[in-house]
Design brief:
The structure holds two protein chains of two kinds.
Chain A: H1 5-20, H2 27-46, H3 50-73, H4 80-95, H5 107-126, H6 133-157, H7 173-177, E1 178-179, E2 182-183
Antiparallel strand pairs in A: 1-2
Chain B: H1 7-13, H2 17-26, H3 31-44, H4 57-69, E1 75-81, E2 89-98, E3 104-113, H5 124-134, E4 143-147, E5 157-161, H6 184-203, H7 223-239, H8 245-256, E6 265-267, E7 276-278, E8 284-287, E9 294-296, H9 298-306, E10 312-313, E11 319-320, H10 327-338, H11 344-371, H12 378-401
Antiparallel strand pairs in B: 1-2, 2-3, 3-5, 4-5, 6-9, 7-8, 10-11
Helix pairs in contact in B: 6-10, 7-11, 8-11, 8-12, 9-11, 11-12
Classes of the chains: A mainly alpha, B alpha+beta.
């Protein structure tokens, strides 16, 4: 496969910045061309990591949903609505098995599966007020480190866009995704 | 284009009448907000991309102005698209016409028009009524004509006087004015005015103004906050292109910890650098962008304005509110100018609310507008989602302290 995607993006960015923008007279067009160039620069930095980002999330969401189901299995007082959500998670795990070699699947399969799992986790979160206090406390304890991992990962992903006033304090996304040269799924 | 990975995502991309009705029931908000949000959803299935070609705008605008003034001898010239901004398409033009006083005059005007879908879906009649209400109270542009339906130009719009001044200091190239840097001398000149105008907004008797498009919440009740949260929860559930556990958790927290509002006031909703303008003699001569205004708790504005992510980081690690002053100084001055007492507990509630709102606007709606190719700023809308994810991170860090 050649040229590589990074080369295409880099060529387009240079052309827009050095050829197109200096010759634009309309301020609105200049502003938009600058945004396109910035977007291309960002894509150049992250394009080779998108698949692994989704793959890592796939493992993380499978892990947290398994933990929630295990929690519910050990709780007698879970409300019916929560049990129904739990059953939907089991259905999803039939479509994308926990031990499936998902890294061999196409990107869109993984992305779709992740979206289903995110929606199911959000339903559990919405159902927190229905949970008895003990169950809710246990659920919150499970979610706390999970929320932390999401926010660190996402903030690193968008770090290069330049909006983060604390960008220098955020890890590079490659340092979060990989460990010892492999996808860092042990952290999940 | 992306696939619909789940039924929820399909409903959001191709909303049916039944689904729109269910969303309306689930997240009650003000009448006119319900009107624009429902309209947005009904239009969403229209496959047409937003048309960025405005070659026929001049003809349509001239015809509208002739009709609305009842004058065939108007002269309209120099129609230009403005750069900057993140939500509405803006154009300037010069108009010569016979004004109400009978004198024939020329004035530079601004046309502010909705794209097919915006980063914030708002009502031009609300904005127009609020600008009228603020006329003579704080510096604002004068509104001449409003069309909240949008038939004459294809989209809803308002036309107001164009004020000369500076929004971004020289060298400022910040998207939508976020994180703008003012030199110390300019900070000193502007900071008190900045706080005074907000204090004034919060002390205006809004019931005496012609704000018929705004619903009036009850005092000493949660109604105003229920409408505010309902507004942004609804927008999240209409626009998000993926589910997000932190945002969902924040919504749950905001519902469960909602305070009542003792005395509702006019809330600007987007009071920050980028949304005011100053003259060469360093006077704030316009407070802009009233489209998110509503009646609610003054703490909502205070939290939003002092939100770190909207501020200007300095080399020493501190952050200036709107690039002008520290959060502590801002709150001290606000209490002094308004007579209102800041309640730290309410302020914290609205800190969470502000980051939630930033997340909804920047992650959900900006992505959705670009997804449907429905704005004149699709590239920028994608880029702004990065701002939103930084906001979600800050939101989670706040919730960790709750």
């Amino acid at each position: 496969m050649s040229p590589e995607i990074e080369q295409f993006l880099s060529g387009m960015k240079k052309t827009i910045e050095e050829v197109v923008m200096p010759n634009l007279t309309d301020k609105f067009a200049q502003e938009q061309a600058g945004i396109v160039a910035a977007s291309l620069g960002f894509l150049g930095l992250i394009q080779d990591k998108a698949f692994h980002y989704e793959l890592l999330e796939n493992q993380e969401y499978k892990g947290i949903l398994q933990a929630v189901i295990e929690l519910l299995d050990n709780t007698f007082s879970a409300p019916t609505s929560v049990k129904e959500t739990s059953a939907k998670v089991s259905e999803q795990f039939a479509a994308d098995k926990v031990d499936d070699p998902v890294h061999l699947r196409p990107y869109k399969f993984i992305r779709g599966s992740n979206e289903v799992m995110k929606e199911l986790l959000c339903v559990f979160i919405q159902q927190q007020p229905e949970m008895p206090a003990e169950l809710r406390n246990s659920f919150e304890a499970l979610m706390k480190p999970f929320f932390k991992s999401i926010e660190l990962r996402e903030r690193s992903w968008v770090k290069a866009l330049g909006f983060d006033p604390e960008a220098e304090q955020q890890a590079d996304i490659a340092d979060l995704l990989y460990k010892d040269g492999y996808l860092n799924i042990s952290k999940s | 284009m992306r696939e619909y990975y789940t039924p929820t995502l399909k409903n959001r991309a191709q909303p049916s009448d039944d689904w729109i009705e269910s969303i309306r029931q689930q997240f009650p908000t003000e009448r006119t907000l319900d009107e624009v949000l429902s309209k947005k959803l009904r239009n969403r299935s229209n496959p047409a991309e937003h048309n960025t070609d405005f070659s026929d705008l001049e003809t349509r605008l001239r015809a509208y102005l002739k009709q609305v003034t009842g004058q065939n001898d108007i002269v309209m010239e120099n129609l230009h698209r403005l750069s900057g901004g993140a939500s509405k398409e803006q154009f300037t033009f010069n108009l010569t016409w016979n004004q109400q006083s009978g004198t024939r005059a020329s004035e530079k005007l601004i046309l502010r028009m909705d794209p097919s879908e915006s980063i914030v879906e708002t009502h031009r009649l609300r904005e127009s009524q609020m600008l009228d209400a603020m006329w003579g109270e704080v510096p604002v542009p004068r509104v001449y004509w409003t069309d909240p339906v949008g038939e004459p130009l294809g989209h809803p719009f308002l036309i107001a006087g164009f004020l000369e001044g500076t929004v971004q200091p020289e060298g400022g190239d910040k998207a939508s004015g976020l994180g703008m840097f003012f030199e110390p001398k300019l900070r000193t000149a502007l900071k008190d005015q900045f706080v005074q105008h907000l204090a004034k907004i919060h002390t205006i008797d809004w019931r005496s103004k012609g704000l018929s498009s705004y619903d009036s919440p009850q005092s000493n009740s949660k109604q105003a906050n229920e409408w505010s949260l309902g507004w942004w929860e609804r927008v999240w559930n209409e626009d998000a292109v993926e589910a997000h556990p932190i945002v969902e958790n924040a919504a749950t927290w905001l519902r469960e910890n909602m305070p009542s509002v003792e005395k509702p006031v006019i809330v600007h909703g987007d009071y920050r650098s980028g949304n005011f303008m100053y003259s060469d003699d360093h006077k704030i001569n316009a407070v802009l962008d009233w489209e998110l205004s509503h009646i609610g708790d003054f703490h909502e504005d205070l939290s939003y304005t002092t939100c770190q992510i909207l501020g200007t980081p300095l080399e020493d690690g501190s952050v200036l509110t709107s690039g002008l002053l520290s959060k502590e100084e801002f709150l001290d001055k606000y209490q002094q100018y308004s007579g209102n007492t800041v309640d730290p507990k309410r302020l914290f509630y609205f800190d969470v609310f502000s980051y939630y709102k930033v997340a909804v606007i920047s992650v959900a709606t900006s992505s959705r507008a670009a997804y449907g190719r429905k704005t004149h700023l699709d590239a920028m809308m994608n880029l702004l989602s990065g701002f939103g994810y930084t906001g979600i991170s800050a939101l989670q860090r706040l919730l960790d302290q709750a």
